[in-house]
UniProtKB/TrEMBL annotation:
<dbReference type="GO" id="GO:0016763">
    <property type="term" value="F:pentosyltransferase activity"/>
</dbReference>
<dbReference type="InterPro" id="IPR007657">
    <property type="entry name" value="Glycosyltransferase_61"/>
</dbReference>
<comment type="pathway">
    <text>Glycan metabolism.</text>
</comment>
<keyword id="KW-0328">Glycosyltransferase</keyword>
<feature type="domain" description="Glycosyltransferase 61 catalytic">
    <location>
        <begin position="281"/>
        <end position="382"/>
    </location>
</feature>
<protein>
    <submittedName>
        <fullName>Protein O-linked-mannose beta-1,4-N-acetylglucosaminyltransferase 2-like protein</fullName>
    </submittedName>
</protein>
<dbReference type="Pfam" id="PF04577">
    <property type="entry name" value="Glyco_transf_61"/>
</dbReference>
<keyword id="KW-0808">Transferase</keyword>
<dbReference type="GO" id="GO:0000139">
    <property type="term" value="C:Golgi membrane"/>
</dbReference>
<keyword id="KW-0325">Glycoprotein</keyword>
<dbReference type="InterPro" id="IPR049625">
    <property type="entry name" value="Glyco_transf_61_cat"/>
</dbReference>
Amino acid sequence: MKGGGGLLGRYDTQKFGCGVMVKCLLFAMVVLSVLNPAVLPSSIFQSKWTINQPVSIEEEPNFGVSNSDHTKLALRLLAKTKSQNEDETPTTEIILNKSKLIYNSANPRYNICSIEGDIRIVSNASTIFIVSPTPLNPNTTTWKIKPYPRKWESYCMSSITEMTIQQLTDANQTRSCDVNHDLPAVVFSTARFTGNLFHDYTDMIYPLFLATQRYNGEVKLVVEDYVSKCIEKYQPYLTRLSHYPIINIDTGSRVHCFSSAQVGLENPGPLGYKFENPQNDQAMQQFRRFIRESLYLERSEVEKGKKPRLLVLIRKNTRLIINEDDVMNLAKDVGFEVVTADEETTKDFPGIAHIVNSCDVLMGIHGAGLANMLYLPANGTVLQITPFGNLKWVGRFDYGDPPRGFGFRYVEYEITLDESTLIEKYPRDHPWLRVRRKGNFANYIMFKVLASWVGISQCMASERTFVAAVILFVAVFGFA
């Protein structure tokens, strides 16, 4: 089975007995009463949420034409971005007559090509022509690009179709236009759609938002590697980003002509968090507002004067909370109304968005489910449990930094060896457990190998850990 999203995403991880964590954090989090979140009716869990805005696809007549590694990224991406050699010239910009081409390969996360002029996108050929009577570049007339913003992962990019952007000096060198569009185009791929919420938002929805928001819907979306499930699932967003039918260039043989186009998408970081400028959260705030409006979520921010409502994400195969009943009872004892969402519930989109929006705190073990934080009201709280093995940086990278940009509060708890079921499988001095405490890359991989071999256990909270959790909570939220 595939694991959740983020740096632990594609691997199975061990099961945890998390009673200690819950007792520590939930008791501390009774302070959340100052947040006074609103409690919505339980009937929200029986509702099926539909948004009647079908995505239309521009029909193409058939003319008979036939048709890495997450972890290394975490440590090297930021360094690579900050240490970009100023002597390098990864951005090519050519402006001649009415034609303009900017090919930007400087960012380690993505490539983008912006074009203006006589642009001709040929369906079912993965080719874009730009017609200019004078050569745009003395060294080349051809550029290659894969329009998916995850270029550091070779295994991921191997499934993305490469597009060729070619400059022609004579319009007669290619076919004439079948369809002339008077709007700009944004060209992207949906080949890597897997239903993993973290990657859907990080690699597609947020990048599309950045690319199209300035057009207020007056833009054409051009899709390569078309995945219908992806387009259907995210129709509430796509119909707001563009008011026009989506163009599927995998089929047909039409030549679509534009005067401007962006090929590829910008991927600032996990869930849109921009590492090189963490204070620049304006776009993230706008994106959260865009989500709320697109899905018709009722709560824009946490209200005062009501009982706090906690949503616990429940997993059934990996990274389990073994003593779930104890967790639920403890949360209730310290003052929360508790609701749960299992993996099937989280797949019900956009229903899960309304459930999360009805809550004030989202709690879960590291994984793609935590990306549901995007549906929380402003000033909501994200509580992440990170696995044993000195892997706090993993959790912080994917789900610890983004909340600040979205206007959420963040609390984390790192599982200790005594709270992990690994202690039942291996002696305390076992080399694998000793090495994993160092938290380096090799041990991170070793941590993955152990995933399917662990047992189950429960834990008791110690007073020392309890006090530490209270201090952590006060430090994060500033409550005295």
